[in-house]
Fold this protein.
Amino acid sequence: MSLLLEIRYFLILFISIVFLVPHADAQILNIERSRVQRDTANYFTGKAGLNFSMFNRNAGKDNPNNYLQLTFDGNVAFISARHSYLLLNYYNYLLVNYDSKALRNTVASTGYSHFRTNFYFEEPLSYELFAQVQTDQARGLELRALAGGGIRYRLLRTNNSTIYVGTGVMHEHEEWEHPGEEANIIVSDLLKSTNYVSLKTKLNEYVSTEGIIYYQVGYADVIEKFRNRVSGDVTLLVKLTNRLNLRTNFNCVYEDEPIVPITNFVYSISNGVEVKF
């Protein structure tokens, strides 16, 4: 099957999954956790979910806080005999005090779409191309668009553990809103080195863990400094049945030189269930 035909099949399958997969509560995970392995080829897998909620919390007798939230996530992967194609999507929209009589309205929009191709993924040394668009208005990130490529090397693969390392280059374009200055948009364009180490290991029959650490660095002309970004994602899985797991996840991001004054370190901890199919 030619590479062009594989990509065409992948796009058709993605559209099918977005509109046909039943609703399921799901959380977008890191790139490593979204990779799949089977003994067959030319198959697809994925998940999609759409959540809508509306509620209010009183901040005083005559001052209710009204919340409206919409969350969409959808992952799809197409695996051919030699190459894999992965598309991750997540979007969350939160509107506070949507009543027209409210004194203030707060909008927080967060989301991303990430596409990644892994050529010759079964080989110890494989090659990757990727592209991503992202927004995080709660932190002032109006747009982040990046594209790049690199190599991926398998250090270890046993029945219970796998370790991969990857390195590459990417171009990153960012548009940040300066806090307190809505009309002031700071733009950054830079070439960055991107590197990662990923680990999956099965501790026993019921407990496994997986994690990935990224390190990215590039020189930003807008601030005339090197910008270093470190991010990590670690998950502990406890098997309940063949298809149901308990999941505890920790992820964090640290950036030493943000181009606008924001919190350098952000993190999240979550607990939930995971359904495999």
